[in-house]
From TrEMBL:
Keywords: DNA-binding
Residue ranges with Polar residues bias: 1-13
Region named Disordered: 1-23
Organism in which the protein naturally occurs: Streptomyces alanosinicus
Pfam families referenced in this protein's UniProt entry, alphabetically: TetR_C_22, TetR_N
DNA-binding region: 47-66
One example GO MF annotation: DNA-binding transcription factor activity
PANTHER family given in the database record: HTH-TYPE TRANSCRIPTIONAL REGULATOR PKSA, HTH-TYPE TRANSCRIPTIONAL REGULATOR RUTR
Biased composition range(s): Basic and acidic residues: 14-23
Protein name per UniProt: TetR family transcriptional regulator
Ranges for domain HTH tetR-type: 24-84
Database matches in InterPro entries: DNA-bd_HTH_TetR-type_CS (IPR023772), Homeodomain-like_sf (IPR009057), HTH-type_TetR-like_transc_reg (IPR050109), HTH_TetR (IPR001647), TetR_C_22 (IPR041674)
């Protein structure tokens, strides 16, 4: 009897964990479906019915986890922003002064482009004209943080420049990247790779006169 009671207690403990695991899998399934729908139709035209259909579930099942499409977009955006923060943390880490500028720029661009091409919905949600208010706030915070990281990086490469010049340069770099990203996402395969290289080349031509020989002197 004690063995049976112990087994029953163990089973009761495992059931909530199994339900939680199934719930997490269902949420992931719904978020992946939403990402495809948002990329195809945009946020405004998307509907919970379309997302449920894409996920292969009933609308009722979707509503067990999300009350509306805004909640889905916010959850999806939060997860992507968390991953994006890790990406730019790696991409904008301090640079060894012996690193050639071309290598430093190329490495950062490759990381950012890889993230955005792997998650095209990030661009669709964060740069669309109709994103939910909370996501717009998240995007603004992300942009501010990202600009600050670029300013910190440029500050070490442009020690004689004033803060206004460094800030302006950071905004221009980010603007060049965002404009290039839109072109990159609109193409596939070899043509996409060619556009990525174009973005690197533009940034290099912009930064070289400003940075001079401060990188790559090792």
């Amino acid at each position: 009897m004690p063995d049976n009671a112990q087994t029953q207690a163990q089973t009761q403990k495992e059931q909530p964990r199994r339900r939680q695991a199934r719930g997490e899998r269902r949420i992931t399934q719904l978020l992946e479906a939403a990402a495809r729908v948002f990329c195809t139709t945009g946020y405004t035209a998307a509907s919970t019915n379309a997302i449920a259909r894409e996920a292969g579930v009933s609308p009722g099942t979707l509503y067990q986890f999300f009350p509306n499409k805004e909640a889905i977009a916010i959850e999806l955006g939060d997860r992507l922003v968390h991953e994006m923060r890790e990406t730019y943390g790696e991409a904008l880490a301090p640079i060894d002064p012996a690193t050639p500028l071309e290598e430093a720029v190329g490495s950062a661009i490759d990381r950012f482009m890889a993230f955005n091409t792997e998650h095209p919905v990030f661009f669709a949600l964060m740069h669309g004209p109709d994103i939910p208010g909370r996501m717009a706030e998240t995007h603004d915070q992300l942009y501010t943080t990202l600009t600050g990281r670029i300013e910190g990086l440029l500050g070490s490469l442009m020690p004689g420049a004033g803060q206004a010049d460094v800030t302006r340069t950071a905004h221009v770099c980010l603007g060049i990247y965002k404009a290039g990203l839109e072109l990159v996402l609109a193409h596939e395969g070899a043509e996409r790779a060619a556009y990525v290289q174009e973005v690197k080349d533009v940034l290099m031509r912009y930064l070289e006169p400003l940075v001079g020989d401060r990188l790559g002197r090792g």
